[in-house]
Amino acid sequence: MDSLHAIGFYVSAAVSLAGGLSVAFLPDRVRRGMALGAVAIGVAGTYLSLSAGFAALVALACYGGCAVLLAGPTYRVLESVTAVIWRQLGAVAAAALLLALVYAAYFGDFSQSKYFGGDFGSASLGRRLFAHDALATEAVAALVLVGLVGASIAWRTRDRSR
Amino acid sequence: MTVGLAAVLFVAAGLVAVGAFIAAWRRDLTAALAGVPLMFAGAGTAFAGVSRFAAAPAGGGQLLGQEVALLLSVAALAAVVLGVGLAGREGRR
Questions:
Q1: Domains in chain A: boundaries
Q2: How far is CA A112 from CA A80, A90, B59, B80, in A?
Q3: pLDDT 10s digits, A112-141
Q4: Separation of alpha carbons A141 and A130, rounded Å
Q5: Which of A36, A43, A150, B74 is the most exposed place for a label (fewest CB within 10 A)?
């Protein structure tokens, strides 16, 4: 990996992590949505610097869509009934998870090799998605269908109950 | 300046941990839903990094990590669509 790709990777990683922390602490939904948009740009930049150009495009569209959904006018507040102590324990567990993952990444003995794929890889990824691993693609397509149908049913029953 | 698999995994660990923190910390469940795409993005970053740096398996499966990262992005969007739809049914403005 040359210096330009390395700089792009570190800048994108910093943008995505800063955006993630902003999502955690910003008070209103529009700013949180903008921070999640920054996460989408950062993750797409990270993928791009890892020579996964097509995955970067799809990630930008999908995580950007998540940001639009969570910042849009369809947002409704749903208060949790969980006690504060459990939320604090969850935050401590997230910190413990970070330590465990960093420990595994630092002390892991990974073998490395040369990368022979192209920078974008849409043709070879398409062959894998629609030929070699078509069942996994079908499963994710079914998940998307269930998500869309479930959201539509939820909104229709809400409108009828009004 | 260079990037190795350990650096990619550090970033992935950070994204997963921040996503888990958001899901645990936010009182509003719709806001906590924003942690889901972050955790999926972290997992996808780890897969893309392994695809870029790790030794290719026999049979030319070097693009498998990119493929999983792509599918994780779509699955995250589907999860958020369903969550926002359910919150729209039960929640208040």
A1: 1-76, 122-162
A2: 45, 35, 17, 35
A3: 767 766 667 777 788 888 888 888 889 989
A4: 12
A5: A150
